[in-house]
Design brief:
Layout (H helix, E strand, L loop, with lengths): L1 E10 L2 E7 L4 E5 L6 H13 L19 E8 L5 E9 L2 E6 L2 E3 L1 H7 L2 E4 L5 H4 L2 H15 L3 H20 L6 H40 L6 E6 L8 H7 L1 H7 L10 E6 L10 H23 L4 E4 L2 H4 L2 H12 L5 E5 L11 E7 L2 E4 L2
Parallel strand pairs: 3-12, 3-13, 8-11, 11-12
Antiparallel strand pairs: 1-2, 1-4, 4-5, 5-6, 6-7, 9-10, 13-14
Helix pairs in contact: 4-6, 5-6, 6-7, 6-9
Length: 359
């Protein structure tokens, strides 16, 4: 899939802009703070329903603007064109697909974007929540029933947590139906996650070999959020008193995590910050390759500030690997990266929120 057109209104420093992208490499150049990253952020919003930047959601909207809007024309590999829209005024997000109001989940399923940016190392070094976001986005795009199971799980989790916080004694009979539902839906979520990681692992190993051959063979460890082999309903019943003391459910699919280790770096602490970035990049490109394999079309790949995040040899390795696949790539930088000098591309200049095509 690829963006043919992307329009932004009221997003950070961009009052209004429209870009028509090439099918292959597209480069946005300009000074720091000019608005380059906001373009990638807009693409990411359509695909994830959230920003990859940390901070308050209110910061997304340009100061003084009534709201923000992102529109896109997206062409799929089968030549089908989808018109996407995501907007917000106040706290409420509204999504549209081909002129119809839709749930954000439906919009996200239509559009796939993976993004490597300065905060991506949190996928390796950050909290488990980052890794669950990565995993569940990937599962959601290839497993049709995953979202339903996840919503069932979240509804049951909310009910159990409400009971845990209720003053006074709550009978076990009140907990039991919600714990049974948590166990059943968690089993579906867990099965889908494991199947996804099994498919992802060969791509992870290929990408890690490309970027970090010195680390040796890669291994992946997955933790479902409770002890393997135990029935989650039994675990929850056993932990009720402890969970009541804490006011929330401490075991389940919402506590899942995964990690990577290498033959010559068995613990995360053995990785340098630069290596963490490269491992995160390997994860994102592996996810893109699996998405292409399962869905029959490549996601859009965004690389924010590539020249600052990677040295020249690794930049070249990334560019060479992407030249050989039919993926649309959006790259930002203060200048056109040297690794792209001999690559056919479209270049845009970004200055104070204004975007001008150069090539």
């Amino acid at each position: 899939m690829r963006f043919e057109r992307l329009q932004l209104r009221g997003l950070r420093c961009i009052s209004e802009a429209m870009l028509e992208f090439a099918p292959g490499f597209n480069v946005l150049v300009g000074a720091n703070g000019a608005g380059k990253t906001s373009v990638l952020e807009a693409a990411f919003l359509l695909s994830h329903g959230r920003s990859f930047r940390s901070g308050a959601r209110e910061a997304l909207t340009q100061r003084g603007a009534a709201g923000l809007n992102v529109f896109a024309m997206l062409r799929h590999a089968d030549d089908r064109v989808a018109r996407l829209g995501l907007g917000r005024s106040g706290a409420r997000w509204e999504a549209r697909l081909d002129g119809e109001d839709v749930a954000i989940g439906q919009l996200v399923r239509e559009c796939a974007v993976v993004c490597f940016e300065p905060g991506s190392h949190a996928l390796i070094a950050g909290a488990a929540e980052e890794r669950r976001h990565y995993l569940d986005w990937g599962v959601f795009h290839v497993e049709q029933e995953f979202l339903l199971a996840w919503r069932r799980y979240q509804r049951a989790l909310k009910q159990r947590n409400s009971l845990l916080r209720k003053p006074g004694r709550v009978e076990g009979a009140d907990f039991a139906p919600w714990e049974l539902e948590l166990s059943r839906s968690a089993a579906l979520v867990d099965r889908a996650r494991r199947a996804y990681l099994d498919g992802l692992l060969p791509h992870l190993r290929d990408q890690a070999t490309l970027f970090l051959p010195e680390l040796g063979e890669l291994e992946l460890r997955y933790r479902p959020g409770w002890l393997d082999g135990e029935d989650l309903a039994d675990v929850l019943a056993t932990q009720r008193d402890r969970d009541q003391g804490r006011g929330h459910t401490t075991a389940g699919a919402h506590r899942a995590d995964w990690s990577l280790s290498f033959q010559h770096a068995p613990q995360r602490e053995h990785l340098s910050r630069g290596q963490e970035k490269l491992v995160a990049l390997a994860c994102l490109l592996a996810q893109a390759r699996l998405d292409a394999e399962r869905r029959g079309e490549w996601p859009v790949i965004c690389l924010d500030d590539l020249a600052s995040e990677l040295d020249r040899s690794h930049q070249s390795a990334v560019v060479e690997s992407l030249k050989s696949v039919p993926a649309q790539v959006l790259i930002t930088g203060t200048d056109v990266p040297g690794s792209l000098e001999q690559v056919e591309k479209r270049v845009f200049h970004v200055e104070q929120g204004s975007l001008t095509p150069l090539l």
